[in-house]
């Protein structure tokens, strides 16, 4: 039986995987699933898969951390295992894939899409920022060697803080992730508060210095930040 080929469809077809995690377009991550190499992914992020992939909602490792994951939504991760190709997305957000090489990363929990299950991780309080924001701030710390997929509301910029001696200043509500080894400090804007930034953090910024990188998204939404009342 002849198959009708719709013009233009071939340009969107999946390509053979070149890495464990990679982009398929700018809004989707493609993960090469291999037996024994499980992935933790944001619950509800699966959009398609090929082969045999199983899902475990609220696995024990997530339940253990969920008591600290103060989103009010319970455990936000599922465990994916099997063989095949797994496609994940988050409502059209941009996706960034990072390959950690014995590195540590601090990620805003709402920007965390997926990561290799063998990586060390846990919910952590971001120290030293509560006095500037008036609230505590919780992130997900991930370390080791493996892949991590992040989301960004718009095309992000990855700033290499080790390229010069100057500090890098970021609006807290635009932060996606940063290298855990970076030094951080808050800075208040005494004046011109209406001119600096566009989110709730417009009167203060976070200064980063040292060797590492910061991932910044163009959309500032303070409701996305994992926080608790101070």
Automatic annotation (TrEMBL):
<protein>
    <submittedName>
        <fullName>Uncharacterized conserved protein, AIM24 family</fullName>
    </submittedName>
</protein>
<dbReference type="InterPro" id="IPR016031">
    <property type="entry name" value="Trp_RNA-bd_attenuator-like_dom"/>
</dbReference>
<dbReference type="Pfam" id="PF01987">
    <property type="entry name" value="AIM24"/>
</dbReference>
<dbReference type="InterPro" id="IPR036983">
    <property type="entry name" value="AIM24_sf"/>
</dbReference>
<dbReference type="InterPro" id="IPR002838">
    <property type="entry name" value="AIM24"/>
</dbReference>
């Amino acid at each position: 039986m002849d198959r009708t080929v719709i013009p233009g469809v071939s340009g969107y077809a999946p390509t053979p995987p070149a890495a464990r995690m990679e982009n398929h377009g700018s809004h989707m991550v493609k993960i090469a699933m291999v037996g024994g190499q499980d992935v933790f992914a944001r619950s509800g992020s699966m959009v398609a898969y090929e082969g045999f992939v199983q899902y475990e909602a609220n696995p024990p490792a997530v339940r253990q951390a969920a008591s600290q994951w103060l989103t009010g939504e319970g455990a936000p991760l599922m465990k994916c295992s099997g063989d095949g190709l797994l496609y994940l997305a988050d409502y059209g957000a941009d996706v960034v894939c990072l390959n950690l090489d014995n590195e540590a990363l601090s990620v805003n929990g709402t920007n965390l899409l997926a990561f290799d299950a063998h990586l060390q991780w846990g919910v952590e309080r971001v120290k030293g920022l509560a006095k500037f924001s008036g609230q505590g701030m919780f992130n997900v710390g991930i370390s080791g060697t493996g892949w991590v997929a992040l989301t960004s509301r718009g095309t992000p910029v990855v700033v290499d803080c080790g390229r010069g001696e100057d500090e890098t200043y970021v609006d807290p509500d635009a932060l996606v992730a940063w290298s855990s080894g970076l030094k951080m400090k808050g800075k208040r804007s005494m004046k011109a508060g209406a001119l600096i930034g566009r989110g709730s953090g417009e009167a203060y910024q976070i200064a980063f210095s040292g060797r590492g990188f910061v991932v910044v998204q163009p959309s500032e939404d303070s409701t996305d930040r994992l926080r608790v009342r101070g």
